[in-house]
Amino acid sequence: MSSCLFCKIAAGDIPSGKVYEDDDVYAFRDIHPKAPTHVLVIPKTHIATLSEANDAALLGTLMERVRFIADQVLELADGYRVVINVREGGGQEVFHLHVHILGGKKLPF
Ligand code: 5GP
Ligand code: ZN
């Protein structure tokens, strides 16, 4: 979607700290990190929010890549947290589905 910030990032039209990319997903560092490691993983297909994601294969691929990126690319050997904020009440500010990976310190719940 041409007006979407994260579509522009995935297309390379806006610079980002890319950590991983393949045909299905794009992963980059959050501009305001809330942990020593804070990466966002997005599907390249524009889906506004988890509430509108009814493609089980896409969601399965997204979560498998989140695991791969956290364990193999970021090497968060001590563990990490995975967060999806859903719509305004869940704290979602950018309406392109994204998974936060947070790690690098002991995280309070
Ligand atoms: P949300 O609150 O929607 O779950 O998270 C959106 C995240 O995107 C926030 O943590 C915010 O810091 C990050 N963000 C917003 N704009 C940009 C940007 O232009 N570049 C990057 N790398 N991150 C962004
Ligand atoms: Zn988008």
Automatic annotation (TrEMBL):
Organism of provenance: Mariprofundus erugo
Domain HIT: 5-109
SUPFAM superfamilies cross-referenced by the UniProt entry: HIT-like (SSF54197)
Pfam assignment, any one: HIT
InterPro entries with a match to the protein in the record: Histidine_triad_CS (IPR019808), Histidine_triad_HIT (IPR001310), HIT-like (IPR011146), HIT-like_sf (IPR036265)
Residues in coiled coil: none
Listed GO MF terms: catalytic activity
Protein name in the entry: Histidine triad nucleotide-binding protein
